Amino acid sequence: MKNKLYYQFAGSCFLVVLMFLGYVVRFYPEWLTGFDQTITTIVRTPYPAANSFFIWYTKFADPLTVALITLAVAFVLFRGKYYAEMLWLLINTALIAACVNPLLKLFFMRTRPTLDHLVAEYSYSFPSGHSAGSVLLYGTFIFLLPQFVKSAKLCLSLQILLGIGIFMIGISRIYVGVHYPSDVLGGFSFGLAWLLMSYPIYLEKRFVWRFKNKQK
Prior knowledge:
Structural class: mainly alpha
Number of strands: 0
Helix content: over 70%
């Protein structure tokens, strides 16, 4: 894959961002105060008029929603014999989003903002699980879409909509008061780091598996 190094380099850059944020959160959280307060103030400008919208919208990355969408899409991929795609999706969501991200939260143990929470959350704050989960679920769809949508314009339009959707989930976590902007940035960085570094591996395995199947 000729673009393998580009994906891995981009993924490494996001990993560096995550590591930097994690270091600051763990040892110098006061460094992020100005950034977090400024972004939070901007995001919550329409408060409380937009409460209903963001309470509804943030549910698109709830663990139950992610699990149901993952299982439904994985079933469709399995029936269509897209085994590599199904496995990559399951690893991204069931392993990385559902298992690794909570372990990171336990390591950093950052408490949530003291704002009024519009939704109930009981875990630690950094990195944002909803932000990471949205990248790992809907970001996987962005990468897989070209295989299933042959119209380049339609494919690009769907990818852009998914990208905007991911961004808005991050915004929703700030608006409902359960995450600092740096939590969301950390979640996005974590999800993108894994997605970009694992994508070339998925492509390689997909090619090998399909070549072997054709040889039988």
